[in-house]
Amino acid sequence: MSQESEYGAGQIQVLEGLEAVRKRPAMYIGSTDSRGLHHLVYEVVDNSIDEALAGHCDEITVTIHDDGAVSVADDGRGIPVDTHEEYDRPALEVILTVLHAGGKFDNKSYQVSGGLHGVGVSVVNALSGRLETEVRRDGGVYRHAFEAGEPVGDMERVRDMEPDEATGTEIRFWPDDDIFETDEFSFSTLSNRLRELAFLNSGVRITLRDERADEDETAEETYEYDGGIREFVEYLNETRSAMHEEVIYFEDEDQNIQVEVAMQATEELQGSIHAFANNINTREGGTHLTGFKTALTRTVNDYANDNDLLDDLDENLKGEDIREGLTAVISVKHPDPQFEGQTKTKLGNSEVRGIVESAIHEGLGTYFEEHPDTAQAIVLKAVEAAKARKAAQKAEELTRRKSALDSTSLPGKLADCQTKDPDEAEIFIAEGDSAGGSAKQARNPEFQAVLPIKGKILNVEKHRLDRILENEQIRNMITAIGAGIGDEFDVENVRYKKIIMATDADVDGAHIRTLMLTFFYRHMRPLLEGGYVYATQPPLYRIRYRGETYDAMTDAERDEIVEQKCNGNPSQVQRFKGLGEMNPEQLWETTMNPDNRILKQITVEDAAAADKMFSVLMGDAVEPRKQFIKENAPEAEWIDI
């Protein structure tokens, strides 16, 4: 563990100057929409978490202020304020104004860090209209302010620290509204990420406060989990039926690489496995996830064979059989992680695989020997899954994965587009033949395809893949999208980069949309992670007055148009009950024309939160769903996954 004396200006290494961040923000934070806005908070919080990982921080407080700012305060050592020799400026100023300046490029200041690229807080500063810092260290309280990334005056020592005052850092920033498309911070979005960080760092207390609440009330939640990822698994399984009460947990360390694994088998059909490296959600997996899967399959098969539990199967279990219904969290902390890609979503360190494999094989093997009833239940559940898989392989109809993937002819109901460039192509998956027919007439055939689906597709949360592939509507979607399904899904083969759900603005339409989203999340998740999935938002009303036409999305918007545009006396108000009621011209103007339409992009910001949400909404447990609806129905027009 590093000593406090090793974290000063001398440990702040400068790799290059801050350039072009304000001109090309998406290069650094991914986007300038809501996702990028919240990424600013995560970058600052990651610095505090790194202090916690180094053993110097116990409490982190994130506050959404009512003036548009967000502040992050911690009780760590405080950002260094002594003079940086090369720049002859305080280290605090260098860290906030120079890209790749930080204490994370050697292993002296931080043994483990999530913010290894060192761009975080300087990028936040560059993309903020104003940023203010307060640092408590070296016996004093220091303040510095910045505007659009540039220092405002010099750093000031404003007072001496009180005798019992703790060291720490507070950063408050106002995102630049000339850069970001939105300035609205979401409490629930921040809550999901901060809860996840608290699970991954046991003993750290993280508080989220929202000062924007009505009637001068402040919303506040605190996350602290001494059980760490064990409690994470319990949280994910709150709406699932666990097959054993105790969460299986073990940890190991080798070559300064820490490995933690927690898992619990459930009676459900959908598995839920989440892998993290240095607190970063590695959505694309990597060597730690590969090591986990390999060792899990080998360990379960070894136990099953040693105890003669596979006699009815005549072959070993496959990984997919064993992972059915399994909830697991894998967390590794590496002093020098190598992430593949700009977004750091795949771990590449080759040595991690063997270390994780060894930890799983030893830890799980020992657990099975000590808990034979649990081990046998897990094996028998996997045997049942294997039998279903083998039955599907033998089916003569299109009820097996291979036939869905190998089908070369496109669905007969698909009206395909002319372009073969996925970047230009988009497909409307339309509810019902009537809406599909109108959409086919309304579309621009050069780049717009239309696939009508009839009725409600299968709820995939409750069925295995062989049963899912019996559903004609799902088979048509798989074939049209063209990238396969499940473990064999390859996003590189997607035929359309915009997959647009076109459903009615009523309860049935919302249900169909949820069923489709459940299917995409469980079996084509890269579509959601890549931002390829959208939903139409057609107007509910069309108002005509003196030759002018106005569209309204809500009752309130309709009333406003009638009052302000039509002087309270419109000549016609048309209520669209469904897409099928629109003629092709109306459908094009309101819903399909890229110049006029409103699309809602569906993304997955937090895989664990989305996983739990789909279990609540689409799983077998009734009470959690009733409770969710009761709590959220009054204000829910749309739920962001």
Give the biggest beta sheet.
Answer: 8 strands, mixed
> What are the low-pLDDT stretches, counting only 5+ consecutive residues below 50?
396-404, 637-641
Q: Label the overall shape.
A: globular
Instruction: Give the N-terminus to C-terminus distance in angstroms.
Output: 39 Å
Q: Total number of β-strand segments? A: 27
Structure characteristics:
five-stranded mixed beta sheet, 641 residues, Rossmann fold, disordered C terminus, Heat Shock Protein 90
How would you describe what is shown here?
The protein is of the alpha+beta class and 641 residues long. It is 35% helix and 22% strand. The protein has 20 helices and 27 strands. The strands form 7 sheets. Strands 9-8-7-10-3-2-11-12 form an 8-stranded mixed beta sheet. Strands 13-14-17-15-16 form a 5-stranded mixed beta sheet, with helices on both faces. Strands 21-20-22-23-27 form a 5-stranded mixed beta sheet, with helices on both faces. A hairpin with an 8-residue loop joins strand 11 (205-210) and strand 12. Helix 2 packs antiparallel against helix 4. The longest helix is centred in the middle third of the chain and has 23 residues, at 372-394. It is globular and about 75 Å long. The two termini are 39 Å apart. Residues 396-404 and 637-641 have low confidence and may be disordered.
